[in-house]
Amino acid sequence: MHDEDQPQGDAENSGQAPWSESDWTAYLKRQELEVARFLSIYNEVKALPDRLDTCARRMGWEPNEWSPGTEIIDIEFDPEVPQDLPYCIHQHPVFIVGRALSIQASTSFRSLLRDSGKAVEPLLAAELMLSLWEVHQQIILAVNATDTGDLSLTVVHMKRALTSLNTTLGLLQSVPTEARMSAMGSFEDTESTLFDLREICLRVMSDCRW
Length: 210
Known about the structure:
The chain is an all-alpha fold. The protein has one domain (23-64, 87-208): Up-down Bundle (Butyryl-CoA Dehydrogenase, subunit A, domain 3). The chain is 67% helix and 0% strand. It is built from eight helices and no strands. Helix 2 crosses helix 3 (51-59). It is globular, with a radius of gyration of 19 Å.
């Protein structure tokens, strides 16, 4: 296949040169910083009952930006990133929150495993992490479905995310008491983060059905 036969996406009709690998690399690094920024805020305010809304306000998101169909989020100037930003789901608030909270939950559970020694069976740990991975995957697919306007599909993916969340929470409750007591902070943080992921799923589903 010749270069002229390669698909060029929206750039072909926009009059703009297609992005290079270095452009996309810089873009993804910038988006990872947004995820890290959300996590930093979340850990600062996670004791608050309205922590998700507090995080959203401090991220500069408007209430309707949590809704399906939200497009680009304004991000700070970065000289390494071209300013003619395309729309990608990486910029969607639900994508950022879903990724951030999945990282938070997996990191907290990893700390629990580290601090509890061999109290947690390897199979239980593997099943819980696999279930959490499925939650994250379904949230990504749900955000992608909103981009195409398939709100019913968004609801289906969020339902699947909720099913996997319930499985994950059930597996977490199977963690032996010995492990919980030796790493109570990590256990509680994992549990509360999973409930926050559940809240995000429920909000998106509610917005889709509005």
